[in-house]
């Protein structure tokens, strides 16, 4: 029986166009490319889905893609514009070291920008994500970003760092380079980094940031992620001055107005000045990650005051070795100190109520995440042992921590506070207006509960070393999470005890530390791994 004599029961070609299209749009680019080879009809049909969201993993492929667009060019005679296939979103992955190995020349920013502008001409509404990995901070194309325009790039993700094998070279020139003197040599990483300019130093500076923030190099940038890797040295480099202020001009930060998501991970170029600039000029920022960067507690105190009410997501990870965390804790434990000490915990309680996701890892954390002064006083009145710091009169209350007592008292306290304000309302609610207000309040509470359930709000707190105040304990934190708002998932980690408790709707479960906080686990791994994955910030702050 010859194949052509049998009519296939159903094939992609025989399906109505709309249905076939729905199928094509749901397929991955590689599947589409394979399908396109099956028949001429299918080839024609899959063209538009195939070109809508291409993912290209080299500059060469970007060139070919641009050439294809050029080949498919048609002219709109009325407007005189060239048209080609519709591209909705382009994802471009570049590894500068691989590019250089392939062509013998570094991939320079000019070429990249030119090609993106070429694609933009056909697709003025395209959005582009650029992901550059294994790049030195100051090598091409990253080095020359500020002298080019990259239109329609809405997402920029950079994996920056220095090639560990080149590190000693790059730091041996110039004065004050003793910083990396005592480093144990390690085997080179399998994937090479591009070569930094000799003498380049990763320190806070305006130039590093303006190319991302000025709005002229990346006029459409909404999401910026900087993941920096650096050598873990043993002492602060002599040239590094953490107090060095960075002065940004108005033009330097114009682009921040569009930024919605900012991730800075182990970036030695980041400091208080950059954080403050970000705070002042990024009104649309709702998703902020600051991980293992060198910022003071005074700056973080300001950040949490101003940003927490606006953000939807916050990840704040303070390095275990942070000297600022230590100083803040010391200040807090001086009895009846008159000094104002930056304390981060209370901010989360006061201003973090409406965030979908909070993650906070710090050397020291305490019950102020949950309790206000009034609640704590009531707890002590009911027999809570208090803390070793004592009360205002210096009386140290002591005894054993009673979890049942704590949860009972706090729950009772909060219910009464609610009904107190409720009965006050009721007492003088002759007016229809006030009834309406009470109803409105009830309704908004119900809406909030539904939103929390739907969006699955989460709170992750990780105690890296201990409690803010002497005598405080981690189990108390877990108990306090049990009496928090329903629907919010709490994860409380305690690195020294290697324990994690998860709490949801008053129910506590134990979890594995390495499952819940893998990033911290990695950081505590074998020293040789640590050399590669740890950031120089840590070494700086270790002094
Ligand atoms: Zn750098
Ligand atoms: Zn370095
Ligand atoms: Zn605290």
TrEMBL record:
- Biased composition (Basic and acidic residues) is annotated at 514-523
Q: Where is the signal peptide?
A: none
Q: Which SUPFAM superfamilies match?
A: F-box domain, RNI-like
This chain's protein is named F-box domain-containing protein
Q: Which domain of life is it from?
A: Eukaryota
Cite the InterPro entries for this sequence. Answer: F-box-like_dom_sf, F-box_dom
According to the UniProt record, where is the region Disordered? 514-543
Q: Where is the F-box domain?
A: 9-62
Which segments of the protein form a coiled coil according to its record?
none
């Amino acid at each position: 029986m010859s194949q052509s004599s049998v009519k296939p029961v159903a094939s992609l070609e025989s399906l109505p166009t709309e249905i076939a299209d729905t199928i094509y749009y749901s397929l991955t680019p590689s599947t589409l490319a394979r399908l396109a080879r099956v028949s001429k009809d299918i080839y024609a049909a899959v063209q538009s889905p195939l070109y809508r969201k291409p993912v290209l993993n080299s500059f060469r492929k970007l060139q070919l893609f641009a050439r294809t667009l050029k080949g498919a060019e048609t002219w709109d005679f009325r407007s005189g514009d060239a048209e080609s296939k519709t591209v909705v979103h382009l994802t471009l992955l570049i590894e500068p070291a691989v590019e250089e190995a392939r062509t013998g020349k570094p991939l320079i920013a000019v070429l990249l920008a030119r090609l993106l502008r070429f694609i933009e001409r056909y697709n003025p509404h395209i959005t582009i994500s650029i992901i550059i990995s294994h790049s030195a901070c100051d090598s091409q194309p990253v080095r020359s970003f500020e002298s080019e325009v990259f239109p329609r790039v809405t997402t920029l993700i950079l994996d920056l760092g220095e090639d560990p094998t080149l590190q000693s070279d790059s730091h041996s020139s110039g004065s004050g380079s003793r910083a990396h003197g005592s480093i144990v040599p390690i085997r080179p990483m399998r994937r090479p980094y591009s070569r930094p300019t000799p003498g380049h130093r990763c320190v806070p500076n305006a130039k590093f940031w303006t190319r991302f923030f000025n709005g002229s190099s990346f006029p459409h940038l909404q999401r910026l992620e900087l993941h920096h890797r650096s050598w873990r040295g043993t002492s602060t480099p002599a040239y590094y001055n953490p107090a060095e202020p960075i002065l940004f001009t108005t033009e330097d930060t114009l682009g921040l107005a569009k930024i919605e998501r900012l991730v800075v991970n182990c970036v030695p170029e980041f400091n208080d000045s950059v954080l403050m600039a970000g705070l002042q000029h990024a009104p649309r920022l709702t998703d902020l990650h600051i991980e293992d960067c060198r910022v003071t507690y005074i700056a973080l105190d300001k950040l949490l005051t101003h940003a927490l009410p606006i953000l939807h997501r916050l990840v704040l990870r303070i390095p275990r070795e942070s000297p600022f965390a230590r100083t803040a804790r010391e200040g807090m434990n001086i009895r009846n100190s008159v000094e104002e000490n930056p304390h981060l915990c209370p901010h989360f309680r006061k201003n973090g109520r409406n965030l979908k996701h909070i993650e906070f890892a710090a050397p020291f954390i305490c019950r102020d995440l949950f309790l206000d002064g009034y609640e704590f006083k009531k707890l002590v009145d009911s027999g809570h042992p208090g803390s070793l710091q004592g009360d205002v009169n210096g009386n140290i209350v002591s005894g054993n921590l009673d979890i049942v007592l704590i949860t009972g008292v706090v729950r009772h306290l909060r219910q009464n506070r609610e009904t107190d304000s409720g009965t006050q309302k009721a007492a003088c609610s002759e007016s229809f207006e006030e009834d309406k207000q009470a109803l409105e309040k009830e309704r908004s509470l119900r809406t909030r509960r539904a939103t929390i359930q739907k969006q699955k709000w989460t709170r992750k707190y990780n105690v890296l070393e201990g409690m803010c105040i002497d005598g405080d304990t981690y189990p108390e934190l877990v108990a306090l999470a049990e009496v928090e708002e329903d629907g919010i998932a709490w994860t409380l980690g305690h690195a020294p005890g290697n324990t994690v408790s998860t709490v949801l709707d008053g129910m506590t479960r134990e979890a594995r530390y390495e499952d819940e906080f893998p990033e911290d686990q990695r950081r505590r791994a074998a020293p040789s791994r640590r050399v590669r994955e740890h950031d120089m910030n840590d070494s700086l702050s270790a002094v």
